[in-house]
Amino acid sequence: MSKTGPSPAPGRPSAPEPSRVPQPSSAPESSSTPGPPAAPGAPTVPGAPARPVRDEQGGRRRLVSALWPPRVTRAQLVVALLLFGLGLGLAIQVSSTSDNSALRGARQEDLVRILDELDDRTQRLEDEKTRLEKQRSELESSSDQAEEARKQTQEKERQLGILAGTVAAEGPGITLSVGDPTGAVESDMLLDAIQELRAAGAEAIQVNGVRVVADSYFTGGGDDMRIDGTKVTAPYVFKVIGKPEDLEPALNIPGGVVQTLEKEQATATVERAAKIVVDALRPAKRPDYAQSSSR
């Protein structure tokens, strides 16, 4: 016998069962925190976090304000000036050493000759230093210092007489003969020859019977060449006393006296000699104002 529930009351409709509204499934929670709101007018991408526009603009402003205007301390300014001066000095040195020189295109044998000449000059200076030190030692160690001083004074007077042109001299040296068929040789060319010879150690020089000393001067040129006011004509013959091994290379260096004269269609001949006589003399001059300061 089956059991039945209570039947609805007659004449009364049964109440409908309440309908169940389906609940939406919950979206998975995002672990990221929501960013700040996007700037007005900025395009948004669905699902992408908003960019921190305001923070970036603020960072840029802070960076610009930190860099400009530049803040320079006194120590930084001093260091900058020192570095600038150092760089300028290095640039000037590099520029001066990189300039074209007369020796850049010289041959190897010419460069060796020039180096030998420099070594000879250095040796002459060393010899002069040794000689003077020896004289000082002899003067200090001599028992009769007065007599030793007198001898050295006479020797010094003789040497100064040779340099001043008041005493004749002889010794080894060279002869330089300059021919001028076209009249192109000027006074400065002969003066350059004198300077080169003096730099090479010439001790006495005579040109066409005129003694050349420290205060000699050259004027004119061609048919009116004069030395110390005395007229001389070509060929110009230089008699020079000194070490021939030093004098001859000094005239024949690249760009030197001989090459310069040959460019002017002149001729230059250098000959070594074991004995050169320089006998042209100059009158001794008494100074008008200068006096010895020794007491």
Summarize the structure.
Helix 3 packs antiparallel against helix 4.
Could you give the order of strands across the largest sheet? Answer: 3-2-7-1-8
Low-confidence stretches: 1-16, 26-35
Count helical runs: 7
Distance separating the two termini: 170 Å
Radius of gyration: 51 Å
Strand content: 5-15%
What are its keywords?
295 residues; alpha+beta; extended
If you had to describe this structure to a student in words, what would you say it looks like?
With 295 residues, the chain is an alpha+beta fold. The chain starts with 52 loop residues before the first helix and ends in a 17-residue tail after the last strand. The longest helix has 34 residues, at 108-141. It is extended, with a radius of gyration of 51 Å. Helix 3 runs antiparallel to helix 4 (145-164) and helix 3 (108-141) packs antiparallel against helix 6. The strands form 2 sheets. A 5-stranded antiparallel β-sheet has the order 3-2-7-1-8. A 3-stranded antiparallel β-sheet has the order 4-5-6, covered by helices on one side. It has helices at 53-67, 74-97, 108-141, 145-164, 187-199, 244-252, 257-263; strands at 169-179, 204-207, 210-212, 218-219, 225-227, 230-232, 236-241, 267-278.
Task: Please render the helix and strand layout as text.
Layout: H1 53-67, H2 74-97, H3 108-141, H4 145-164, E1 169-179, H5 187-199, E2 204-207, E3 210-212, E4 218-219, E5 225-227, E6 230-232, E7 236-241, H6 244-252, H7 257-263, E8 267-278
Antiparallel strand pairs: 1-7, 1-8, 2-3, 2-7, 4-5, 5-6
Helix pairs in contact: 3-4, 3-6
